[in-house]
From TrEMBL:
<feature type="transmembrane region" description="Helical">
    <location>
        <begin position="98"/>
        <end position="120"/>
    </location>
</feature>
<dbReference type="Pfam" id="PF25933">
    <property type="entry name" value="DUF7978"/>
</dbReference>
<keyword id="KW-0812">Transmembrane</keyword>
<feature type="transmembrane region" description="Helical">
    <location>
        <begin position="169"/>
        <end position="192"/>
    </location>
</feature>
<feature type="domain" description="DUF7978">
    <location>
        <begin position="5"/>
        <end position="195"/>
    </location>
</feature>
<feature type="transmembrane region" description="Helical">
    <location>
        <begin position="20"/>
        <end position="40"/>
    </location>
</feature>
<keyword id="KW-0472">Membrane</keyword>
<feature type="transmembrane region" description="Helical">
    <location>
        <begin position="126"/>
        <end position="148"/>
    </location>
</feature>
<keyword id="KW-1133">Transmembrane helix</keyword>
<dbReference type="InterPro" id="IPR058284">
    <property type="entry name" value="DUF7978"/>
</dbReference>
<protein>
    <recommendedName>
        <fullName>DUF7978 domain-containing protein</fullName>
    </recommendedName>
</protein>
């Protein structure tokens, strides 16, 4: 059974190490979202209007910060269409642009903390410590993509109308949920382990 050293130099089983890393993935997603909320709430309210909950508008910006577009679709009778939008790219404000840095920075920091906490001093150990962050992060961002959807339906005489706005699901899972933590949390752990290994 593989073991990593903990801060108390006691052994930690591989299973508990994976669970701890996955838990920090959940924490990283929460920290990233809350920091996004603080940075962009006023602009999000203005951009999405009164018909959408504030937390959903911020979530759309949070997904955009992971390079995931927001998909808008609508139907009016027999006609319908789909389009994508990136609220950060359309904004141009400094606080919105800062959001692009936020997820990598939070994940990098979480990876570095893991490596330092577990006294990892080689690249292989760093990868083993940080890669499971992906599990928690992917779960949160996958569920978030579903709950951040905003939809409406109505009728105009005999014609039915409907529309929805949500993060694109596949990029939300693959790019934001899996690739981001795999790259940035692991990079943080590798850098921390390299510095402590000297």
């Amino acid at each position: 059974m593989s073991r990593l050293a903990t801060a108390n130099d006691g052994p930690a089983s591989r299973g508990s190490s994976v669970a701890a890393s996955a838990g920090l993935g959940v924490l990283a997603a929460a920290i990233g979202y809350l920091a996004s909320y603080v940075l962009i709430i006023d602009e999000a309210r203005e951009a999405v209007g009164d018909g959408v909950a504030d937390w959903k508008g911020v979530a759309w910006y949070f997904y955009n910060a992971h390079l995931v577009d927001i998909e808008t679709s609508g139907e009016f009778g027999a006609w319908g269409g789909t389009d994508t939008a990136n609220l950060i790219a359309e904004s141009g404000s400094t606080s919105a642009t800062l959001l692009y840095v936020l997820p990598p920075l939070v994940l990098f920091t979480i990876g570095a903390i893991l490596a330092a906490q577990w006294h990892v001093n080689d690249i292989g150990g760093a990868v083993l410590a940080a890669a499971p962050v992906t599990i928690g992060y992917a779960v949160v961002l996958s569920i978030g993509a579903h709950v951040a959807e905003s939809s409406s339906e109505g009728t105009f005489g005999p014609i039915e109308m409907s529309g929805s706005v949500a993060p694109e699901l596949l990029p939300a899972i693959l790019l934001a949920g899996i690739l981001y933590p795999l790259v940035f949390a692991t990079a943080g752990a590798v850098l921390a382990s390299t510095l402590t290994g000297r």
